[in-house]
Amino acid sequence: MDLGEINPVLLVASLMVAATPLLLAAIGELVVEKAGVLNLGVEGMMIVGAISGFAISVETGSPWLGFVAAAIGGAVLSLLFVLLTQFALANQVASGLALTLFGLGFSALMGQSYVGVKPPDMGEIHIPVISDIPVIGPILFQHDPILYVGIALTAAVWATLKYTRVGLILRAVGENHDAAHALGYKVIKIRIMAILFGGACAGLGGAYISLIRVPQWTEGMTAGVGWIALALVVFASWKPWRALLGAYLFGGITVLQLNLQAAGVAIPVEYLAMSPYIITILVLVILSADKSSAPAALGRTFHASH
Amino acid sequence: MIVLEKRPQPSKAWSYATPLVAVLATMVFGGVLFAILGKNPVEAIGTIFWEPLFGEFAFYYRPQLLVKGAPLVLIAIGLSLGFRAGIWNIGAEGQYIMGAIFGAGAGLAFYPLDAFYIFPIMVIAGAFGGWLWAMIPAFLKVRFGTNEILVSLMLVYVAEQMLASVSLGLLKNPEGFGFPGSRNLQSYDSAHNAELIAGSGMHWGVVTALIAVIFAYVLLNRHMLGFHIRLTGEAPRAAKFAGVNPARLILFCLGLSGALAGLAGMFEVSGPSGVVSIDFNVGYGFTAIIVAFLGRLHPVGILLAGGLMALTYIGGEIAQSQLGLPAAAIQVFQGMLLFFLLAFDLLTNYRIRAARSEVA
Amino acid sequence: MKITTLLASAAMALGLASGAMAEDKTKVGFVYVGPVGDGGWTYEHNKGRLAVEEHFGDNVETVFVESVPEGPDAERVMTQMALEGADLIFTTSFGYMDPTINVAKKFPNVKFEHATGYKTADNVSVYSARFYEGRAVQGHIAGKMTKSNIIGYIGSYPIPEVIRGINSAYIHAKKVNPDVEFKIVWAYTWFDPAKEADAATVLIEQGADVILQHTDSTAPQAAAQEAGNVVTFGQASDMSEYAPFPRVSSIIDNWAPYYIARTQAVMDGSWATVNTWDGIKEGMVEIGEISDAVPADVKEEALALKAAMAAGEYHPFTGPLKKQGGSDWLGEGETADDGTLAGMNFYVEGLEGEIPQ
Predict the structure, then answer these.
(1) B4 and B18 share a domain?
(2) ipTM of this predicted complex?
(3) Considering the entire predicted model, what is its pTM?
(4) Among A48, A206, B157, C33, which residue's CB has the most CB atoms within a 10 Å radius?
């Protein structure tokens, strides 16, 4: 065993990469839930985003176009959820699960001709001088652009929710849709926008896996990240910066356990592999004192009856 | 402009008609999908829905519907009680795994002893395993107010790792040449959940699922506890005034659904599956959530929904091998079926009207 | 048992009814554990199926069902294939072992072939590939190519198949490079590309400049490419999209010759139960092209090693070998027997760490 072989700088840098798909999906779902909607279809939207992004970037040769397509793909799939929950007033839990089932199958059909294909490389942003600073450079300034998009998105969502009128209305809708409706806000319209945003973010997260983190296309390649993103939102008690922290914690534990194994620490692997989930439960318990932030109307169906 | 008008009472007629309409719509859209994939849509749909029930080999597939449907129904019944009370156990997959581990573990502990009491002990152990796993989110919710959706979901992943661990370690077959997986309980008579009548598909799990349906029906319609469950879901404040103890209700609903999921796992591992292995769980716990909703959280509805899901699985496999449809197409088809069932449910509770005046 | 007679008579009836037709068409079924688009294990088996179709043309009909969970679902799919007149069924995952035996009992006239298992019957054969032979070649190249003397190894689950590969690679790396050290990471999953990427990154960060993988995705290849100076090998399929560098060679599962031979045997009526464990010699294990990134002399040695195994002159597990901890395993010149190899659950001497239990 030699713990000295673990390089903390590289560990932090790689956990940021591991955390990014989680963060993107979680930030989207956070907005959805803030609007009072629980969409359990994150996994389905991610995988559809993964193949949409992959297919388009292979066809066009541009990873950027791929990410745009991924966002559109995720949003289009979430449109199905909109139809079900906002117009047909169906149960959100069941609709979300159906969305995941559908998305997994649909992505596999779309991706049949993309197995074994290598996508174009996005490259890293390499700013001279600052990216060469020791420690800080590799951690902060030597990543792919989408990783920064994730962080920027977190900041934008935080600022929007906290300081803008849009954010205020969104939160009002999520807290009490009847009151918001009485005040003249278009509850359904706002929720639709939120769901589409969530779908787009999940799509980006999926494409991050298929285009940058892995990068390849195989069926079912998101392998449960969407479910962890759902956990992350609650873990973060619906606060964007905490979602960022949580994503790094999740990514960090995974990367750390692999690091410990590689360094030869004799620890039972299966217990380490389950540790992120157990830690999430512990954090949920610890944070349980803070109940202020759960949107009160979460998961409830709204229908304007007169 | 189309508006929805809430019915004062859910429409009985529509609640029976919507599943049929949904299945028809799925056939139409699914047919289009299969046509796009270059298959004969009529043949494909016929294969999925007709072959397992009335085809040449229906004598084999009909019992298989019981084998495939029973765990779904058993788990969904337990979940539906909680769902009705607004208690969201979505970790049945984990409870199913723990039930299998506990049940098989209890049986294998006696190996190779031959005794009549081994199987009953396994049944109790299986139910206990599932119950125990569900009591974690239940206890944490009651004591700390943590969200049971999240905790139960997280515990699924923990249970999957436990399953891998025991398959490679504790329960590994000592005569299995180092390969992962336990002894096969099918060849250990005292622990084998065999078919009660050979060729019928009926094993103890199927019987238990049917008992659970009846039990849930009686509970919801004839029992005070059932009334409390419904009241808590429909009118939480009224429930409070009626003296419902929310903590006890949470412990009961989660505990029961966990125990039933555990039983499902135990019956599966000791019967149709036989082996505790790394990939023992195949998603029954998640599919059961869908079954619960398709069945409108009603015991009889769940029974039918479980049968329908089993039908699409078995019919889907036949379509794959006979027509060369990809598995993904079957998945999309199932997804469509769920979408339409959920969407048309609207007609049960609402009337659709064309309105002239613009309504916000 | 009622069901047995029922099924058997149905099968017989069907056999009689379609007897005339069966003369010219042999029906072969394949049961897959993953999707045919997994790019690895199932993908290669499906290539074998397509090769059967191509080879026999109109004389054969193949059917397959993909993503079949192990257990009762597999049993049902096999039964269904047998009922519908399959003459030969390949079941391509270890977890299908007991279901295959169960179904085979009910259909004595249908032939079954189970991959990677150990239970046979009158109408059940087993087949597997000696991937450890390919690992020996990899180990040799890896030992020569590493500059940091650290080789990373990504394992799926600690089962004999994977442990055998690690031992074989280690023995041959050590032989050409006494300073070599293996870092082993268990992913505890068969399939999770993101986790495989993480595992590869971690190993590279800890100094590994050669990555061997026993998981099927190309994620480690991409991680190595990004790192720039790390060598990898393709697994299960050639992964030639990463050639010539970082992927310098590969182990390819080639099931086609076996599938064609067994189908032919059924057609000829010469099918008999066999326990096949084929390697480089028979072509079941192929070594993908060794790219120019490997120095010419190393490439030559690797090919010589491959040729020696193909000729049956060399066994990768040849003594003197000791187990981890120093206890004797194989004496001078002694080779490992297949029984020990099949159930291998120990590391050879020199490997560090414990096998998780």
Answers:
(1) yes
(2) 0.87
(3) 0.87
(4) A206
